[in-house]
Amino acid sequence: MSTVLYDTPGPKAKVRNWIYSAVFLVLLGLALWWALGLMADKNQLDGDKWSPFVTDGQVWTTFLIPGLLETLKAAVIAMVIALPLGALFGIGRLSDHAWVRIPVGAVVEFFRAIPVLMLMLFGSALYVQYSNVESEIRPLYAVVTGLVLYNASVIAEIVRAGIQSLPRGQTDAAKAIGMRKGQTMAHVLLPQAVTAMLPALVSQLVVILKDTALGGAVLGYGELLSMSRQISANYSNTIPSLIVIAALFVGVNYALASSASWLEGRLRQSKKSTGAVVGVAEASDLATGNNSTG
Amino acid sequence: MFDFLDSGQYDLLGAFWVTVQLTLYSAAGSLIWGTVLAGIRVSPVPLMRGFAAVYVNVVRNTPLTALILGCSLGLSQTLGITLGGDTFKETGFRLAVLGLTAYTGTFVCEALRSGINTVPVGQAEAARALGLSFFQVLTLIVLPQAFRAVIAPLANVLIALTKNTTVAAAIGVAEAALLMKEMIENEAQALFEVFAVFAFGFVVLTLPTGLLLGWAAKRMAVKR
Fold it and tell me: In this predicted complex, what is the ipTM?
């Protein structure tokens, strides 16, 4: 296969590629050897550091699975609240009335500029002072608050981009048959935009999922990552527990991300949509690098 | 209203200076690491391509918090790697830069890869017809054009990085988020003022970056 950068390899190039592969493999092997040696020195490779994850079901039932469930709980609650809120803000930003458009725009831009971590800290302090939320559940509230404020404004931008990606003719046609602005939005633009935005929205769930880990690190929320401390306290296996937890995160997120791209492929073919899809890449471009947070 | 600023108790500028430094070092590191990764990711050698693809997908799907905690708990406290830092403070800073670089590099790599796709095939074909090697095609013809095409996405990566530096608070690096946490605890009655100050700080850091690089992206774009 020929690409922008190189031709289909001929016999000479094939030999060269083999040599490069071999050299690269050796370098990779050396790096791995060094890393494993370092870990072996500190006894992180001992069987008893790793075996709990296979033999001891309690690691899973007491720590990993509850942690994963807490992570998913915070992420799902945040998504369920942020989604309609974001849609509302996104539509608000497209309003014909300046008195709606400008304040909504200001709110969206403000919350997009603030790190999620700070929003969570702020939320936590807010609940301490101005509410009687119990202290056990407060971290969840704070995490969800931070995630909702930030991600609703990101979703607002995705919604805006989705609606703007539709052909102008759709609005014109709706006007021509006498639809009001609200009807045009609710019956014509939004349904089409939703199919265009779905992949970006799903990939935003990955961002939310990853950001829940912040709650564990700074607010003591009992999510998956915070379990690493507890596991390593029990089995003194810092590195194995971190690796297993990272692998769980990667697994869940990778499944979500793949479903996003599968969905994108499906929607591009579907006859119902306009074929316009706000892809994962575009959405992350426009949403101030949102998918790199946390 | 903002009395807590006058007390001299909090080194607000110092904390934001640490944030800026974290951003600058990590930005430089991830630009280099991301470019190298992108080079590997589009290379003609399938094994290297595979390695870069796995790295990017694994690291991008790991929470940054996990990476930075891993650097601190795993690399430093367990394996004793201090990256040449003499004090706890210095080591924490360097570990945070390492974690941020490893993470942000993947986003730089993906941005660059999409930039490489915008370069017309004819450019590279012409370069190959002149007898340039893969490395020469990449560094002389394709990357310079790709970079100019991805200034805007890279600006977003940089803005996200600026915000992501707050995660370093999780390992005790004395940057803005950590100071905010401390101030919220001490100045509970002035919660909104404290938040406003830090929010303002981040708007000041991210807004000019976005505007400047957005302007640069328009200026530098290759007109086709």
Answer: 0.91
